[in-house]
From TrEMBL:
SMART domains from the UniProt entry: BTB
ANK repeats: 73-98
Keywords, sorted A to Z: ANK repeat, Repeat
Keyword Repeat applies: yes
Protein name, entry field: BTB domain-containing protein
């Protein structure tokens, strides 16, 4: 074992860690990261983690269930998912903020109980010392505005003790009750002066705190600064009261303990996000304008405004067929509507699309007396989701518009929102079925909850590998319902055409993926039924190594040969079949003895149908 390879604590070490952790929590030194939760929604989340049900997990996370809580047996959702071997469920929990910190009892316990190394390595990747808080990208962007030179987004200069900083009114108003009141009374203010008695270091620490930056551990004082250490800390206390940010001194004096620092930092960022969210809901969404599309150009919004907006974003309703007024007179209904959102360039810079636009020489880059209206090619509902994410890092939306969000995020180069949309589609779109349950099902002809073909094409257009894999698995586990449809044939044809200068011997990516997951689907069933053991009994021991090297398709084909029961044989024993229960038929209508034989025959039939499809399409793969 390498010297720097992380080790997992022994059971006795875990117990000692638990005792020490409970003692610190009782003393109030640290907070309990995993509070006890006896609510029904949390119980449902835990059950979903045991079963690997991604759909229910995503729904409960969207409802706000605490992913770091614990049940009466001290199990967290992440421990349950790791213990039961559900890699994708564990990944979803980690992406949603589940903690796995090495120096905590629950973190070490999670690693200790991980079913396999793949899950254990995933947990180590998300250890706090190696990863960031889910809100860190938002905090990092707001902090970066203090030093960003282009494009210029600052709209006020605040001065204290001959030190001046170019700041943003909407951030100051959202984070400080003092600035909220002062700027509401004078929104046109371009400069603001604070008392000269405040040391520059204290002033800088306060502004960095308002911009969600980490407070400095050591404040410069002494010779050369003009202020002693006591005067500097007194200045911090004074400016915290002046700007009404009472938690500033505590954040500076906080100890260097990693866990306490992390908890304090997370609390401050969460508080800042909530303040930005309140500002966004009240001032951006609360001041949106809905007008007829034909009158959009008549909208005028002065650059000096009470919410400090410096740009307007427009989204048009999707075009609909004209309808006549049922009430009579045959008068047409009102024309299409457009929604205009007052926004702040500083937050739109989180999108590379807007960052490039505002840094260019195009007309959209200039702030005029009347704000520029920028058209965004998406629906108002989708644009609201995008703005909510840019301002608050929140991204909760239903499956019905997830594909639209995916396309819009791709257009605006917002990679994290693209990933979120892919997660929503691949979890909520799993038709309420966990991967384990899907492995046991014998196909379905029920109507799909989603348009899987649109999702495949969206995955291709937006280059999201996660969605391509989801679509291939989705089709493989429901292949009976799709393989004979013209849409499926068109999909395979298009997948083949995506390879430039394709040769006859080249593989077809989508078809290969479907075959892989089809083999996985039936292999899981055969493994449960003990097919491998049954086959090994009839083989010589010296051939065992060769059998292990055979691929899944070969094993399954031999299983079919060993277990296939012809329709004619079944017809000679109608009375026996009737006594044993209802008839079981394969996809081709042939009677079989049991469900295991049905699976074996169906697997061979589906593979043959895939080969027939390739032949009809004149494709070789």
């Amino acid at each position: 074992m390498m010297a720097d390879e992380p080790t997992v604590l022994r059971k006795d070490q875990l117990e000692i860690s638990l005792v020490e952790e409970k003692k610190l929590i009782k003393e109030g030194t640290i907070k309990d990261d995993n509070p006890l939760d006896l609510s029904e929604p949390f119980r449902e989340l835990c059950n979903a983690c045991r079963q690997g049900d991604l759909k229910v997990c995503q729904e409960k996370i969207s409802e706000g269930v605490n992913v770091n809580a614990r049940d009466p047996y001290d199990y967290t959702p992440l421990i349950l998912a790791s213990l039961c071997g559900h890699y994708e469920t564990a990944q979803l929990l980690l992406e949603s903020g589940a903690l796995c910190e090495r120096d905590t009892f629950q973190g070490e316990r999670c690693l200790y109980n991980a079913l396999n190394d793949r899950i254990r390595n995933l947990l180590l990747e998300y250890d706090y010392s190696k990863s960031t808080d889910p809100l860190q990208p938002l905090a990092a962007h707001i902090t970066s505005l203090l030093v960003r030179e282009t494009p210029v987004t600052a709209d006020i200069v605040v001065t204290a003790s001959e030190q001046s900083l170019h700041l943003h009114k909407f951030i100051l108003a959202a984070r400080s009750p003092y600035f909220l009141a002062k700027l509401a009374a004078a929104p046109e203010s371009a400069t603001w002066k604070l008392p000269n008695t405040i040391p520059p270091e204290a002033f800088g620490a306060a502004i960095k705190y308002l911009y969600l930056g980490e407070a400095p551990r050591d404040l410069r004082s002494g010779p050369g600064t003009g202020f002693t250490e006591s005067e500097t800390f007194a200045g911090v206390d004074r400016i915290s009261k002046y700007l009404d940010i009472p938690s500033l001194p505590e954040s500076i004096l906080e100890s260097g303990d990693r866990r306490r620092a992390r908890q304090r930092r997370n609390d401050e960022i969460s508080k800042g996000r909530d303040q930005m969210d309140q500002w966004f809901q009240k001032n951006v969404l609360g001041n949106r304008i809905v007008v007829e599309t034909s009158k959009v150009n008549d909208v005028q919004w002065n650059r000096i405004n009470p919410i400090f907006a410096d740009v307007l974003l427009r989204a048009d309703e999707l075009p609909e067929e004209e309808e006549e007024d049922i009430a009579g007179n045959g008068a047409p209904t009102e024309g299409p509507k457009s929604t205009i959102f007052p926004c702040h360039r500083a937050m739109l810079l989180r999108s590379e699309f807007f960052q490039t636009m505002f840094s260019s020489t195009f007309r959209e880059a200039y702030v005029k007396d009347q704000l520029t209206i920028i058209d965004v090619d998406c629906s108002p509902e989708v644009l609201e989701i995008i703005l909510t994410f840019l301002y608050t890092e929140r991204a909760d939306f239903p499956l019905e518009i997830a594909v639209d969000v995916l396309f819009a995020a791709d257009m605006l180069f917002i990679e994290k929102l693209k990933t979120k949309a892919a997660v929503v589609i691949s979890t909520l779109g799993s038709a309420g079925m966990s991967q384990a349950e899907a492995a046991k099902t014998r196909g379905t002809t029920d109507e799909d909850d989603i348009d899987i073909y649109s999702i495949v094409k969206a995955a291709w257009l937006t280059r999201v590998q996660r969605l391509e894999e989801f679509a291939a698995r989705y089709l493989a586990y429901r292949l009976e319902a799709h393989i004979d449809t013209p849409e499926f044939a068109e999909l395979i044809q298009e997948s083949a055409s995506r390879i430039k200068a394709r040769q006859e011997t080249d593989s077809i990516e989508m078809l290969d993926d479907i075959r892989f997951y089809l083999g996985e689907r039936f292999r899981l069933r055969f493994d449960e039924a003990g097919l491998d053991e049954m086959m090994e009994e009839g083989e010589q021991s010296d051939n065992s190594e060769a059998e292990e090297e055979q691929d899944v398709d070969t094993n399954l084909a031999e299983g079919v040969a060993a277990l296939e029961v012809s329709k004619e044989t079944s017809d000679h024993q109608p009375q026996q079949s009737q006594e044993q229960g209802p008839e079981i038929r394969a996809l081709d209508g042939a009677l079989v003895v049991d469900e295991f034989s049905e699976d074996a025959m169906n697997y061979e039939i589906l593979l043959e149908k895939l080969d027939d499809l390739l032949e009809r399409l004149n494709l070789e793969a």
